Amino acid sequence: MYKLELTTVNGLPVLASPELLRERSILIAFTTRQGGVSPAPYNTLNLAAHVGDDIANIQTNRQRLAAALDLDAERLTTAQQTHSRNVAIVDERNAGAGAADYESAIPDTDALVTGLKRTPIAVFTADCVPVILVDPETRRTAVVHAGYKGLYSNIVTAAIEALRADSGGRVGDIIAFVGPAIGVCCYDVDPERAALFAAARTERRNGKIYLDTPGIAADEIQAAGIPAENISVSGLCTACREDLFFSYRRAKVCGRQATIAAIL
Ligand SMILES: [Zn+2]
Question: Which domains does the chain have, with CATH numbers?
Fold first, then answer.
């Protein structure tokens, strides 16, 4: 199945699936913090417009990303993420929402689904779990922002259902990518939060409880009917890899990496 690779595309490092791009003309990418112009604490490839960085820097960063991936920055469609269970379908009426500024992004939404060509959809994260869903048969994609609240309210399942309803395809054909997020190595939580999830996805060390949110996301994807062999998990921890990723746990004021999908 399609694996994630840390690769450099036209000078920009991204975690992507070159095989999916080559065979199906569907581009997926999890960006890193490298290759942008934002100053500290947003250094350097901050792609989100809601974290206090100068909009001019964000626009330059988004244009660099679009140029490297050969996408149109004006078609980039984003949401005002609120840790909700809300999914929006992106069509010609809202394509490009949030490309220019945060105010025009799709309100109160944490997952986007589209079948439009050359219309990149994106969510932004720094520790929360980003998920990409692709149905290569019906040519639909989805991107999901899932923190512990989103995982608890099953936003990933909601996105899978919305994608399937929009495409009319089979859930078993969907391919899922779980991107870089804070790992079980670093994400210690209070017992009340840990108790919301399966004990198998928690770890006890040094008197603390750690939560495996990428594992919880993968479990949810499989429970929704996507075969295990269709699921790729990056295994990269945003908190450990300061060189590659922004981490909210490590620095409360920081940039956001983007999770992007586009049908070419
Ligand atoms: Zn870690």
Answer: 5-263 (3.60.140.10)
Alpha carbon of 137 to ligand 1 centroid (Å):
35
232 burial (CB, 10 Å; 0-12 / 13-18 / 19+) is: buried
- 136 CA → ligand 1 middle, Å: 32
**132 C-alpha to ligand 1 centroid (Å):** 21
DSSP state of 39: P
Tens digits of pLDDT across the chain (264 residues): 899 999 999 999 999 999 999 999 999 999 999 999 999 999 999 999 999 999 999 999 999 999 999 999 999 999 999 999 999 999 999 999 999 999 999 999 999 999 999 999 999 999 999 999 999 999 999 999 999 999 999 999 999 999 999 999 999 999 999 999 999 999 999 999 999 999 999 999 999 999 999 999 999 999 999 999 999 999 999 999 999 999 999 999 999 999 999 999
Alpha carbon of 103 to ligand 1 centroid (Å): 33
Q: What is the pTM of this model?
A: 0.98
Rounded to whole angstroms, how far apart are CA atoms 189 and 129?
15
Cα-to-centroid distance, 184 and ligand 1 (Å): 7
